[in-house]
Amino acid sequence: MKKTFLLLIITIFSGIYYTTNAQGYHIPETVVAISKQQANIRQSPTTSATVVEKVSDGTLYELISKKGDWYEAKDIRSQETVYISTSVSNLMDGRLLPRTDKGLVEKNDGTKYVYQKITTQKGQESIASYAFYQKDEKDIVYATLSQTVNSISGSSFTNELYYKGKQMGWYLIFDEQVDWEGSLIEKVNKPIIVFSKSPKGVIVNGEFYKKTSNEF
Questions:
Q1: Domain limits of the chain?
Q2: CA distance 110 to 197
Q3: Which of 119, 141, 158, 161 fits 148 for a cystine, CB–CB 3.0-4.6 Å?
Q4: pLDDT digit of tens for each residue in the chain (216 aa)?
């Protein structure tokens, strides 16, 4: 009876390990999930500390520890330690993370959806749209960034950039700028980090992009 019970426990825990690491991804046990808009991310655990960046609801950080009313966490993009107030964030079990390997990345560059952010300033409308797709390589992902500026006079200008990166299971990281065919142009100084905020959209470098039908 004891042997049977022990085998059952081993089987259950083996199943959990396989589920969270089935594709070889490192999925943290716990992450810090931002729950407020324009949340301050700081260099040390005090409100007088330097603000490293402001990020949107849905941005994720890998938990290191809890220090009073602050979470000490790892910033995936910079690989540096940052501090986040508990008033603007929550802890999330790694097994419940929104995954980037479950429908976000499409099978080819003729994507059905793009992820869009629209800003208006001084009579100009700027539209930034990301599309995420794969080619033939396992866990290698590509992104097309289309940037369109529409002026009040009616003129319009569009520029496209292409990036190559890796699928990490709970985020995408793009660290190479490439040409249309995928050949390296240059390494990106600060990688582009993408978190899923399904079904509404994604978080790109701390900013929300809305999911919409592809029109470009």
A1: 23-96, 113-213
A2: 22
A3: 158
A4: 444 433 333 333 333 333 344 457 889 999 999 999 999 999 999 999 999 999 999 999 999 999 999 999 999 999 999 999 999 999 999 999 999 999 999 999 999 999 999 999 887 899 999 999 999 898 999 999 999 999 877 788 999 999 999 999 999 999 999 999 999 999 999 999 999 999 999 999 999 999 999 864
**Cα–chain center distance at 9:** 34
Strand order in the sheet with 51-55: 51-55, 39-42, 81-85, 70-74, 60-67, 30-34, 89-93
Tokens 């994507």 correspond to 111
Contact criterion met (CB below 8 Å) for 45 and 61: no
